[in-house]
């Protein structure tokens, strides 16, 4: 083979090799999904591939004729200055590559981010730059992700700095990396004072050190509540209590590289909890020492709580009746009526009052007046029942004047541990106990005769008073009473409608409890206070039994042998001046039944009217 033929074969092989390399390069460019550009520096001519045009939403035909001006027109004006500066430095040999991230205007009017990278690849015979080649890569999604991450970091930084709880970030050796301002202020330092310092150099504690070490070793979160802490750098603070958690931070390999410590000072809450326990103990002692029977029971009658008086009455000294059934202590003759009364309790009518006989542990029969209350959950569903009872046997057989009962009643109100005011139908104050005076700072003389609303920040129960009251108790409200010095006293106030013919000057009773300190307590304390007040209100209801007992004030029960029990009861009401309709209501009988009974009594005694009946009773049976 001659030299010419060899040269042609060699040239053909080189051309084939170049073609294969060009194809491979095209495949690589197509596979990497990048736009390419060639810029002839001296003429300004540019060559773009189709992908370069697609990045900005065009076809190459739409952009023709393409020159360096095409790029300048599409580039963001704010990025051109930096782009030109980098190009000049590359052409001057100061940079190996031209490398810049910039914004390019899309056909739809939005801006897309591209990574523009290029290199000078050819010079002319005089050594001047001739040709530069490079690529455009669409990095819009990456930029959006970076922007989103930046915003998230800004939010986290803002949250970290302005969070009221104490937050610290430490490395796995417990050195502080960063703390928020709340953490620093608690230590009476600036946040930068903690950076690089070891937690246990500042706050040595062997127990906490073991906890931190265990979190690093196991990678498990640790949390605790109300953990006591003594401040070595602030001994005057004494013991404080903290809710805190310690969470591990893992690296990409899953190893713990740091810890996030979050603390919340609950010293005040712990103090209130201790005060609550003291109050629970005090009120339990109060309930235990009261001569009133108190119990709680479920729907089937199972007793869930009984005080000592209840246990002594039905089980004898030293007994405990909790867990037994309430209905076994009610006589068979009274059982169905009691169950019927309890079944009437509901969310709309949660309280009921009635009387019935009981047989005590020593075998004696006594009369008790009971106030039963339905205990409701937040949804209004009955969870259990509460019953309080007072022995009214002696009240039924003794002669007590209205005046004396009034004295006893007001004396009781004076010793109830809440503020009480009684008002007439115009809401003018007619009675106020010492507790309310002490609570507000008023004098009794300064209050009596004045309208109660003038001492309230706002009118209470206004809408409810406009309708006739059927359930006796009005809804409790939080209200502010104004003290003489114009300061406000936060209270929980309950209003009760009084329908008492013997004391017509009293129409409403206000039960006022100072809750200024309780507003800081949690929901458990508020519920406890509400339960205690329910018992106190029921004690007030029981006091009204004094008035009911006046129906029998001058008659000796056992000295009426010629009458049955119903007739004896009718005689008691008649002697007190009650009408047939009122007697029927109080005895829960039909009015026609009462009329027939009264007529039989008249016939038996040979009299014609009530006046003669009362005279007969006075001359025959009165003391």
Describe the structure.
This protein is of the alpha+beta class and 623 residues long. It has 5 domains: 33-144, PAS domain (Beta-Lactamase, 2-Layer Sandwich), CATH 3.30.450.20; 163-265, 2-Layer Sandwich (Beta-Lactamase); 281-391, Beta-Lactamase; 402-543, PAS domain (Beta-Lactamase, 2-Layer Sandwich); 554-621, Winged helix-like DNA-binding domain superfamily/Winged helix DNA-binding domain (Arc Repressor Mutant, subunit A, Orthogonal Bundle). It has a 5-stranded antiparallel β-sheet with strand order 2-1-5-4-3, with helices on both faces. A hairpin with a 5-residue loop joins strand 1 and strand 2 (46-48). Helix 21 (580-587) packs across helix 22.
List the helices and strands and how they pair.
Elements: H1 3-32, E1 35-40, E2 46-48, H2 50-55, H3 60-63, H4 68-74, H5 77-91, E3 98-105, E4 111-123, E5 129-138, H6 140-162, E6 166-171, E7 176-179, H7 181-186, H8 199-202, H9 206-218, E8 222-230, E9 239-250, E10 256-265, H10 267-289, E11 293-297, E12 303-306, H11 308-315, H12 332-343, E13 351-359, E14 365-376, E15 382-391, H13 393-397, H14 402-415, E16 419-423, E17 429-432, H15 434-440, H16 444-447, H17 462-466, E18 477-482, E19 488-497, E20 508-514, H18 523-543, H19 545-548, H20 565-575, H21 580-587, H22 591-605, H23 610-621
Antiparallel strand pairs: 1-2, 1-5, 3-4, 4-5, 6-7, 6-10, 8-9, 9-10, 11-12, 11-15, 13-14, 14-15, 16-17, 16-20, 18-19, 19-20
Helix pairs in contact: 21-22
């Amino acid at each position: 083979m001659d030299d010419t033929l060899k040269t042609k074969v060699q040239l053909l092989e080189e051309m084939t090799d170049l073609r294969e390399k060009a194809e491979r390069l095209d495949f690589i460019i197509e596979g990497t999904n990048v736009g390419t550009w060639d810029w002839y520096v001296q003429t300004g001519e540019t060559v773009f591939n189709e992908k370069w045009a697609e990045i900005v939403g065009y076809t190459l035909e739409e952009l023709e004729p393409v020159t360096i001006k095409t790029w300048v027109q599409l580039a963001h004006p704010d990025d051109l200055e930096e782009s030109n500066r980098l190009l000049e430095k590359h052409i001057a040999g100061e940079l190996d590559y031209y490398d810049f991230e910039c914004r390019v205007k899309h056909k739809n009017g939005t801006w897309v981010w591209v990574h523009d990278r290029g290199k000078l690849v050819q010079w002319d015979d005089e050594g001047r730059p001739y040709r530069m080649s490079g690529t455009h890569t669409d990095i819009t999604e990456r930029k959006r992700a970076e922007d989103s991450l930046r915003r998230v970091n800004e939010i986290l930084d803002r949250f970290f700095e302005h969070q009221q709880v104490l937050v610290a970030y430490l490395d796995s050796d417990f050195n502080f990396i960063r703390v928020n301002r709340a953490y620093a202020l608690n230590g009476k330092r600036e946040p930068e004072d903690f950076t690089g310092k070891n937690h246990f150099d500042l706050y040595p504690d062997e127990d906490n050190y073991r906890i931190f070490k265990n979190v690093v070793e196991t990678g498990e979160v640790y949390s605790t509540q109300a953990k006591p802490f003594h401040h070595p750098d602030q001994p005057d603070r004494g013991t404080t209590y903290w809710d805190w958690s310690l969470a591990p931070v893992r690296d990409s390999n899953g190893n713990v590289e740091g810890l996030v410590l979050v603390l919340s000072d609950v010293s005040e809450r712990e103090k209130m909890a201790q005060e609550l326990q003291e109050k629970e103990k005090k009120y339990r002692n109060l309930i235990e020492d009261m001569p009133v029977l108190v119990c709680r029971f479920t729907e089937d009658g199972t007793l869930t709580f009984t005080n000592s008086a209840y246990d002594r009455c039905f089980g004898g000294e030293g007994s405990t009746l909790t867990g037994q059934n309430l209905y076994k202590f009610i006589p068979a003759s009274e059982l169905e009526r009691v169950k019927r009364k309890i079944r009437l309790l509901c969310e709309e009518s949660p309280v009921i009052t009635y009387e019935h006989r009981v047989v005590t542990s020593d075998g004696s029969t006594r009369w008790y007046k009971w106030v039963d209350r339905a205990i409701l959950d937040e949804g209004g569903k009955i969870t259990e029942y509460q019953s309080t009872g007072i022995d009214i046997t002696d009240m039924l057989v003794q002669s007590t004047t209205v005046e004396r009962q009034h004295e006893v009643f007001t004396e009781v109100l004076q010793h109830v541990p809440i503020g009480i005011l009684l008002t007439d139908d115009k809401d003018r104050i007619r009675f106020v106990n010492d507790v309310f005076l002490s609570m507000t700072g008023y004098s009794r003389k300064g209050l009596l005769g004045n309208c109660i609303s003038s001492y309230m920040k706002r009118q209470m129960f206004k809408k409810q008073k406009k309708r006739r009251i059927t359930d006796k108790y009005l809804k409790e409200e939080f209200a502010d009473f104004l003290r003489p010095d114009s300061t406000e006293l936060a209270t929980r106030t309950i209003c009760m409608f009084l329908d008492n013919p013997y004391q017509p000057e009293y129409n409403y009773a206000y039960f006022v409890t100072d809750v200024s300190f309780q507003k800081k307590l949690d929901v458990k304390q508020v519920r406890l206070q509400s339960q205690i007040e329910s018992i106190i209100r029921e004690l007030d209801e029981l006091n009204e039994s004094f008035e009911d007992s006046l129906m029998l004030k001058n008659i000796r029960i056992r000295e009426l042998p010629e009458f049955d029990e119903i007739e004896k009861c009718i005689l008691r009401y008649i002697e007190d001046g009650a009408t047939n309709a009122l007697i029927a209501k109080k005895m829960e009988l039909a009015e026609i039944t009462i009329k027939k009974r009264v007529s039989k009594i008249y016939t038996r005694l040979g009299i014609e009217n009530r006046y003669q009946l009362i005279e007969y009773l006075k001359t025959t049976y009165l003391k």
